[in-house]
Write a structure and sequence with these properties.
53% of the residues lie in helices and 17% in strands. The protein is globular. Bound molecules: SN-glycerol-3-phosphate (G3P).
């Protein structure tokens, strides 16, 4: 399973790339707004820093403008994946971009029916938002299970990119279901390293080692 970072903060992305675990980056209009920076400059910079796919989202809602925006974003770097919303116009744009050889990430997916349409529209990735479904008392991971089953059943090549991740358990559950990618807020990637017993065990090892008076180097 690939790990993408869900961020438009250049410094944050740079810090996490050093870990070697970042296979790609996803952004959205809210993350760009939070960064306070220009989208074109930001996406160009991130695309240079990361080898894998960098999702950049269109802002328009009509097909013609979305297509023009998508082409412009895709022209920024070869690893830009154009992100479009799961609407009729978004899927029409997905088809056009995908037919032209551009990678497309269809976002704001909340049902398996929507995911099926995105796959048929040639999406490279589908982004189901598990956390936002959990937030309204629905079963986010249940949606991932449905999508993985349907995609497997019909051999759709669209990658399941689990988005709106709220916890490390979401990451584990996504992996157990065979999802292709999880996109993680940086704090969840950091949390994946951590366990109190790791800290406690390490403290004991350090203390016992100091008692030996030895040095490896
Ligand atoms: O990038 C899309 C998605 O990951 C958003 O997550 O936390 O705003 O629901 P969130």
């Amino acid at each position: 399973m690939k790990i993408f970072l869900d961020s438009a903060d250049i410094d944050e992305i740079r810090a996490h790339i050093a870990s070697g675990f970042v296979d790609g980056v996803t952004t959205n209009p809210s993350l760009i707004a939070k960064s306070g920076r220009n989208i074109l400059e930001t996406i160009s910079e991130i695309s240079e820093m990361v080898d894998g796919p960098v999702s950049a989202e269109v802002a328009a809602t009509d097909h013609e403008t979305m297509l023009a925006e998508g082409r412009k974003l895709a022209g920024l770097a070869p690893n830009v994946t154009v992100k479009v919303p799961l609407t009729e116009a978004g899927l029409q744009t997905c088809r056009a971009l995908s037919d032209a050889g551009t990678q497309v990430n269809v976002t704001l997916c909340f049902t398996a029916g929507q995911a099926m349409l995105a796959a048929k529209a040639g999406a490279t990735f589908i982004s189901p938002f598990v956390g936002r479904l959990d937030d309204i008392g629905q079963d986010g991971m249940g949606l991932i299970e449905e999508i993985c089953t349907i995609y497997d059943q019909y051999g759709f090549e669209t990658g399941v990119l689990v988005a709106s991740v709220r916890s490390t358990q979401h990451v584990v559950d996504a992996a157990l279901l065979g999802a292709d990618v999880v996109t993680l807020p940086p704090k969840i990637l950091t949390a994946l390293y951590q366990h109190p017993l790791t800290d406690k065990g390490l403290a004991a090892f350090i203390s016992d080692w100091e008692g030996t008076g030895q040095s490896i180097l």
